[in-house]
Amino acid sequence: MARQGPSKREAIVEAAKALLWERGYEATSPRDVLARSGAGQGSLYHHFPGKREVAAAALAEMAAEEIGAVDALFGAPAPPLARVRAYLTREREALRGCRLARLANEAAMEEPALRAPVAAYVGRIQAALRGCLEEARAAGTLAATVEPGSLAALLIAAVEGGYVLARVHWDPGAMRAALDGAVQVLDAVSRPEGAAPPSRPPAPARGSASGSGPA
Amino acid sequence: MARQGPSKREAIVEAAKALLWERGYEATSPRDVLARSGAGQGSLYHHFPGKREVAAAALAEMAAEEIGAVDALFGAPAPPLARVRAYLTREREALRGCRLARLANEAAMEEPALRAPVAAYVGRIQAALRGCLEEARAAGTLAATVEPGSLAALLIAAVEGGYVLARVHWDPGAMRAALDGAVQVLDAVSRPEGAAPPSRPPAPARGSASGSGPA
DNA sequence: GTCTATAGAACGATAGAC
DNA sequence: GTCTATCGTTCTATAGAC
């Protein structure tokens, strides 16, 4: 059940992966998939019950690929905040949108089988970011003002929102600006890495949230 | 050419507004619009060349409405950073997605007539945020570590990305977490408003970033 | 396992009566 | 200006030969 040449099934899933990124779920028809894959009608419905299951298989593969890439990035031997910066400044094709989260606003997201791989992907990134930020906090390189979990949520939102801005303005620079802001803000709440670990608390300065806002 | 009772044209545009938010552009058919509006086929094609122009009219109205709302919010008589916080913590129906930017990943965004209202909406918000942040900077309540323009881009991206996260995790809390991070970060780079304007540099306390970051 | 042929419904748009 | 009727195409899916 494994050793086989490149079957039509694989060709169909590959085509679906490309088309889901290019056009999304609703705008991709089984005919499009077949045309690009070179397979006939019957092959698709032999291997899959229907369009939804093809998309689910394609999304699962895409999520696995992208999760592998981000795991490699976050597994790099660098200080935690450097890994966060590396993720934020990673090269991206802003106008193409996020390969997985571009489906966020389609009705397909109400189907668990389609939403799950997308959620797993962004969830994994957010968890990795949070891990780095907690590590930095423990090392004393992240200010105590900001909760690592909240900052991680902000950063993944900045990336996904950056894609949205780029598409809406049809300008990759719109995404760059947002991620620029993210890096600046990250720098503003951090201290140089590689410095001596803080045996004493972060100094009297630096308002914990209780002292800064009107709240 | 104005004084008329509620025409079918208006009913069609109203229906399109609702459906574009609910389902997006591709997934909304002229028949759906007609069914919801109570109009017949001919009415739509009498008033508009086709589906695209109906959507353009609907998006223009939606953008005007939403821009009016955000202008009211940002025009409120409050300190600049309070206005920014008010925008960030505004009530939102996270799972419905952004009324306009939900279309970001549709092929329709490649058509200027459809992209323009969406871009105008997010552009207006970003400009308002930037204005507030520049004002705060001038008043000395915003740290010099962060450029107002970059921070504004980050914040609008956080909101739009927050919608994406909520949809992808099917959990409004995902958006709340991102915006929580945004507020925390904003507090971290700001000093209390209402305090005396800074005739001297930000004081050693209350991190203006000079005391806190590597910058 | 792969193919061609085709079904039944919905798509965006048009025709033409009133 | 509004309506019903219908066009030709594409949609997702099935049938059935090879």
Automatic annotation (TrEMBL), chains A, B:
Region annotated Disordered, chain positions? 190-215
Q: Which InterPro entries match?
A: Homeodomain-like_sf, HTH_TetR, Tet_transcr_reg_TetR-rel_C_sf, TetR_C
**Which stretches are tagged as biased composition: Low complexity?**
205-215
The HTH tetR-type domain is annotated at 6-66
Concerning SUPFAM superfamilies, the annotation shows:
Homeodomain-like, Tetracyclin repressor-like, C-terminal domain
In which domain of life is the source organism classified?
Bacteria
Query: Does Magnesium show up as a keyword for this record?
Result: no
Q: Which residues bind DNA?
A: 29-48
**Keywords of this protein's UniProt record, alphabetized?**
DNA-binding, Transcription, Transcription regulation
Pfam families, A to Z: TetR_C_13, TetR_N
Query: This chain belongs to which protein, by name?
Result: HTH-type transcriptional regulator YxaF
User: From which organism does this entry originate?
Assistant: Methylobacterium crusticola
